[in-house]
Design a protein that fits this description.
about 375 residues; Elongation Factor Tu (Ef-tu), domain 3; SH3 type barrels; 3 domains; 8 helices; 6-stranded antiparallel β-barrel; Rossmann fold; alpha/beta; single chain; 5-stranded parallel beta sheet
Length: about 375
């Protein structure tokens, strides 16, 4: 009987993943990953409750369960880079790095030591195949598809992965859990960054990054307020700026950061030109399979510059270690430090980290694209 180790978080998705595999006749082992050990603002350790939920679910399914501690690996491989990016004034996405470094590296290695043929998670994605090679596909429930967070995986990891809930919808997952009598069937989904949880983000970050306040200025150099530290703001942000009225009466938005002068750049109006870009440079590229084109040959695809975004039509160009993108439509608040993830239909190709975005051409991309103004 083939053994599959399931990464269980205490939530409904991973619990149903284990249930479905058990029904399919696999030798299922549940493993709870402890990646962070801190109390929330109410003095509660949410990991302790999650572990109790895992134990109860595994007891009902009659499968063994274990807890494994990856706190050291998480702090060294994920959290350290998270802080380094914020110190640079960027906005990282630690969940992407956690999937590569913890769930599909440290945990995968642990699963193999338990004698598993594969590991499984509760991610809403699917695995396809082309000419004997695995493909990462969007989940059937497009509203819950999580391929954006898994673009850093490689073929070798997909060969060892299983995603049982990728073929069903979130509503079906809860219904399956309810019918099976799982105690987590209506458990609230976790939101935000795992090590911050429901806590105030700024308060959490202040415990790790020193405050370096400075001026808020308009593009014309007018001082309109003071910021608490560039790390605590992100491009396109409106709330929490503390700028009351003034100007033309419209809301203020973050449009950029000047790290050298420690100045937060702000402007009024949600459609201010500085918030929009068409050209994006991406680095730290990861392709799930082979690169989709040779260097210097532009190709068409779609991209997502943040998780909750519809696919955007783009031209892409590989140039050295960088990828240059030209979007058909102007994109709002493309944020350095976040990920740009590329797709061909339902197939996730891979992606990289956004380095810069602007309104002017990069890498002569327009010159290489036929009819650049009507490219797709």
């Amino acid at each position: 009987m083939e053994r599959i180790v399931v990464g269980m978080s205490g939530g409904v998705d991973s619990s149903v993943a284990a249930l479905l595999l058990k029904r399919q006749g696999y030798d299922v082992v549940g493993v709870f990953m402890k990646n962070w050990d801190e109390q929330n603002d109410n003095g509660e350790c949410t990991a302790a409750q999650d572990w109790r939920d895992v134990e109860e679910v595994c007891g009902l399914l009659d499968i063994p369960c274990y807890a494994v501690n990856f706190e050291k690996e998480y702090r060294e491989r994920v959290f350290a880079q998270f802080l380094a990016e914020y110190k640079r004034g960027r906005t990282p996405n630690p969940d992407v790095l956690c999937n590569r470094e913890i769930k599909f590296k440290a945990f995968l290695e642990f699963a193999m030591k338990l004698g598993a043929e594969k590991m499984a998670t509760g991610h809403f994605v699917r695995i396809g195949e082309s000419e004997g090679r695995p493909l990462l596909l969007r989940g059937r429930d497009l509203g819950k598809d999580q391929s954006y967070f898994l673009y850093m995986l490689r073929e070798a990891q997909l060969h060892k992965a299983h995603f049982p809930v990728g073929e069903v919808t979130k509503a079906q997952v809860r219904e399956i859990a309810r019918e099976a009598g799982l105690p987590v069937s209506q458990k609230k989904d976790s939101t935000g960054i795992c090590f911050i949880g429901e806590r105030n983000f700024r308060k959490f970050l202040q415990g790790y990054l020193p405050l370096q306040g400075g001026e808020m200025q308009t593009p014309q150099g007018q001082v309109v307020g003071r910021h608490m530290g560039l790390a605590y703001y992100t491009l396109g942000q409106r709330r929490g700026l503390g700028i009351g009225g003034g100007g033309d009466g419209r809301s203020w938005f973050v449009i950029g950061k000047d790290l050298e002068r420690n100045v937060l750049l702000v402007a009024q109006g949600e459609n201010h030109p500085a918030l929009f870009s068409r050209y994006v440079r991406v680095s730290q590229l990861t392709w799930i399979g082979d690169p989709p084109a040779r260097e210097g040959e532009p190709f068409r695809c779609t991209a997502k510059f943040r998780y909750r975004q519809n696919d955007q039509a783009v031209w892409a160009l590989l140039c050295g270690k960088d990828l240059f993108l030209r979007s058909v439509d102007f994109q709002r608040a493309v944020t350095p430090g976040q990920s740009a993830v590329l797709y061909q239909g339902e197939v996730c190709l891979g992606g990289g980290i956004i380095e810069e975005a602007g309104r002017t051409p990069m890498a002569d991309l327009d010159l290489l694209i036929p009819d650049a103004h009507n490219c797709i």
